[in-house]
Structures are given as C-alpha cells and as structure tokens.
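User: Hello, can you help with two protein structures?

Assistant: Certainly.
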Amino acid sequence: MAARRSRYRAGVLAEAAAAWMLRAKGWRILGRRVRTPVGEIDLIARRGQVTIFVEVKRRRRGDDALQALTPRQRRRIMQAARFWLAAHPRALDGPCRFDLVAVNRWLWPRHVIHAFDEGTDGRWD
C-alpha cells in the first residue's frame, strides 16, 4: 500500500512539473487528470488555436517514456479526447494533437510534439 501511495505521489508531482513547463512555454492548462467514461487524460492545454492532449510519463530517460506509451494507451487517450471534445466543441476551432511530456527527477521535462501521430516517433521540443 505504501509503494502504491508513493507511485501516486510521484505521478502527481510529474504532472505538476509537466504543467509548469508547459505554462512556461506559453500553454494555458485547461484540465489536469481529466476523467472521461473511456479513460483519463493527464493534461489538456491550449496555446492560440492549438489544443493538446498530453500524456505524462515519469522515467529515467526520455526515450523510455516514449516507448512506455503503448498502442493500447494511445487508443484510450484518443477515445478520451474525442469524448472531451464532444463536450467542448470550441476546442475544434483549431488543430488538436497528442503530445507526451517525459519527466525525469533531476532534469527539465521534455516535450514530445505529435507523439501519437502514426508513422512518427514524435520530436523533442
């Protein structure tokens, strides 16, 4: 039970670090730990007309975080995003995308743009 609580706390801290980094880059956080009937989205943010759905992974290396995002998780996040967009149609005024933020205990969080796009591994920003 203590280990589970510790992992939960680490996840909450990783999401807070990711949100802080995104705000520093000019993103406005619309939602944290957004629950839908089909899954949870760690962060939803908007800058200008672009809305991003962000999965946060806490790993020792950024590459490990990208590999930890399984096809099943991608589908679940995309379904949750569709559900959220149905309730927030204004977000469809501009492009939407799926990003990943890799959080390391000692380093600045790394933002992977278009992490969920087919045929690409995303790019670090």
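That covers the first. Now for the second protein you mentioned:
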Amino acid sequence: MQKPLRLAAVAAACAVAGAALYGAGAATAGQSTANSTHEPYNIGLLVKDIDTYYGTAADAAGVYQASPTSPYAKDLASIDKAARKYIDQAARKAVHKGEKPAVVFDIDDTLLLSLDYEKRYNYTYNSATWAAYVNKADRPAVFGSPELVRYAEEKGVEVFYNSGLAEAQRSAAVENLKKVGADINLDADHMFLKNAAAPPSYLSGCATPGTWTCTTVQYKSGTRKHIERDLGYEIIANFGDQYSDLDGGYADRTYKLPNPTYYVG
C-alpha cells in the first residue's frame, strides 16, 4: 500500500459501494478520481455507511471484522462467481491456443482485509503503524479470495501476486497468506513486491537502485508486462481493490474488488 489518500479523498471513491467488473466492457464500481464540484459527503455519515457496508463488528479479541452476511460479502460473492466461470473458460481457451494462462492478485484488501487497521486508526495512514500491522501477519482473508486463488491453480492457471507491500514485508505477507489458505506460489518468482533498494531491471524507466519514482500504475503494469513479455504467460485475469492495481494493460480482463476505506492513485 502506498501512502494512500484516506477519508478526505475516498468519499467519491465509495459513492457507489458495490463492486463490479472493471474493464473488458464491463461497468466500473464508483469513481476512479475525486469530484470537488460539490460539497463532499459528510465524513461522519460516510464512516457509518462504511460500517454498514462491511457489517463491521469487533470480535471477542476486539478485532474489527467484516460480516459474512454483509453487502460487502455479497458483492464479493458475485464477483467470485463471475470470475470462476471466466477463469474456467479462459484457461481452456488459452491452453488450446498454446498459451500459458496466468492470473495476478493484489494482496492488500484483495486477499488480506485491512478493515481493523482502518477502524483502529480512523482511516488515516502512518507508515510506522502500517508496517507494524502488516508484520503481525494476522489479517483475515477477504471473503472468497483465497479460495479463488486455489481454484485458479486447480484449473492449471499460474498464480502471481503484484503488491505494493515493501520487500521488507515479504516474510509477513507469506506467513499471513499461508494462514488464510492462499498457499500457492508464494516464492519470489511469483510474488512481486516493491524493492526500492534493488528494483528489477524491467522497471528501469522509473526506478534505479535507491531511487523509486514509479507510480502505482507504472509499477504494477510494468510487472504484468514482465510476466507476459519476459516470462511468457498470458494474464487472463487481474484482481485488485484499487483502479491503480488494474490500469495500464497487460491483462485480458480485470476485476475491481470493493474497498471504500481508502484510495490509491
């Protein structure tokens, strides 16, 4: 996650709380940019709407969880159903054409839910508290996502991860993904994280050792380009909770998961 714009900027991003397919001729969910032409939505009411959408409640340990019967969960189930049908068909077509099908997943709020962090810190971002939260490696799964990872693998599709997490957070990310059951291809050849100290050569246009100027779109689309052009895969589907996870091409179809808690441009 890159220093995201929090509540002050997300009112427009969550104007439509439900999620939908993004790209491939499908409708988008919400707006990809803020709209300042009118008075923004009241921030207190927005927080209440977010809580209602997730069905937010603290568990016995005081950790904020989303409800499996919430509108959020229902939106995810709808996306999951459509994605499974598509992956099954697209994988068979790709193999028939002699291609190597692959899927790409973002991690934060695509596979691992950060709702407790957002609630606990009132939808504000701090690099130190975020790093400590990630390193605990105990985030719950985004409903249905680990199962979707395993489904893709069962269909003969290569699974990759393309995350804004830092290289220093790799061990925590791997541990957390294992905990939630997304234990597929968690090696360095399949999980791409931000490495500002030693960026890969395929990002040389915006990153050199010790200097990182890549936008999220440049980093993520550049990584997908590497998966397709250098590794020889055909990315049939790309999953993310931010538009910046999806923009920039190099995926046959993109799926926008709902996330009304922050916006990463």
